[in-house]
């Protein structure tokens, strides 16, 4: 299967509560912020509530074909921004629009459905199920989508072949190297043909050569023009591969 080949996959009706008119933007923020409320225990057993501003007044747009990096020191808001873009969380101020849908207007269940239809996520620690084969791990999102078994099998095999693991389909995660597990995670993230692929520190636990191969995959996926790819990373070598970098400090964008 070549990089340009894709098996057709029905997306359902594509409608979600809060949906607006279609735009070329895959995901965008308009004055988006995220504040968390936390409680600290005090002497005597009492607790004191306070708020933490993780992200403040972020405005940006990401379009199909873009390979975008998110950078900043620990505590700068990288993970918070990534979670908002992916619909894993909702803003407490401003708006986040994913696939022309206002994320903040959705319930948690509706956000889950939106992600399933439009977002692929590659976690730093892979989050593969150890009891399942590589092929079964890749097929998991398709099960949630109600895709027939024969189609799941065909698509998961094709995706593993695309990431260079066509001969490792029956291997469980424990029998795969870290780089191979990461590639299984990439294949799984692509299973539903998402318009947005996000990755959290995708090269953080990989050696340099393996990390470069993963970045090659991301670059190729963005170059297809069908989706946007966003990665959060401390690794400047990884960020150098992106088209542009959104840099954060203390929850604010300092360079985009």
TrEMBL record:
For this record, the Gene Ontology CC terms, alphabetical, are: membrane protein complex; plasma membrane
Boundaries of every ABC transporter domain copy:
36-256
Instruction: Return the Pfam families for the record.
Output: ABC_tran
Q: Which PROSITE patterns match?
A: ABC_TRANSPORTER_1 (PS00211), ABC_TRANSPORTER_2 (PS50893)
Q: Which GO terms describe its molecular function?
A: ATP binding; ATP hydrolysis activity; transmembrane transporter activity
Q: Which UniProt keywords apply?
A: ATP-binding, Nucleotide-binding, Transport
Question: Which protein are we looking at?
Answer: ABC transporter ATP-binding protein
Domain of life, per lineage: Archaea
Give the matching InterPro entries.
Answer: AAA+_ATPase, ABC_transporter-like_ATP-bd, ABC_transporter-like_CS, ABC_transpr_LolD-like, MacB-like_ATP-bd, P-loop_NTPase
User: Which SMART domains does the record associate with it?
Assistant: AAA
- Ranges for the region named Disordered are 1-24
This protein's species is: Haloarcula nitratireducens
């Amino acid at each position: 299967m070549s990089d340009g080949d894709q098996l057709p996959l029905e997306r359902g009706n594509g409608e979600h509560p809060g949906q607006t008119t279609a735009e070329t933007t895959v995901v965008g923020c308009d004055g988006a912020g995220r504040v968390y409320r936390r409680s600290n225990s005090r002497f005597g057993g009492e607790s004191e509530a306070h708020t933490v501003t993780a992200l403040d007044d972020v405005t940006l747009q990401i379009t199909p074909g873009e390979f975008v990096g998110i950078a900043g020191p620990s505590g700068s808001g990288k993970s918070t921004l990534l979670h908002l873009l992916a619909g894993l969380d909702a803003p407490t101020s401003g708006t986040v629009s994913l696939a022309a849908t206002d994320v903040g207007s959705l319930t948690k269940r509706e956000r889950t459905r939106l992600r399933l239809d439009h977002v692929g996520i590659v976690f730093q620690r892979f989050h593969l199920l150890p009891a399942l084969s590589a092929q079964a791990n890749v097929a998991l999102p398709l099960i949630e989508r109600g895709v027939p078994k024969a189609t799941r099998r065909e698509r998961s095999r094709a995706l593993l072949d695309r990431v260079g693991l066509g001969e490792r389909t029956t291997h469980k995660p424990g029998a795969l190297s870290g780089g191979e597990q990461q590639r299984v995670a990439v294949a799984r993230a692509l299973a539903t043909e998402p318009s947005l692929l996000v990755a959290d520190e995708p090269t953080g636990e990989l050696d340099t050569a393996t990390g470069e191969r993963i970045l090659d995959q991301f670059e190729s996926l963005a170059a297809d023009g069908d989706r946007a790819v966003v990665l959060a990373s401390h690794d400047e070598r990884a960020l150098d591969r992106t088209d542009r970098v959104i840099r954060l400090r203390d929850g604010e964008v300092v360079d985009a």
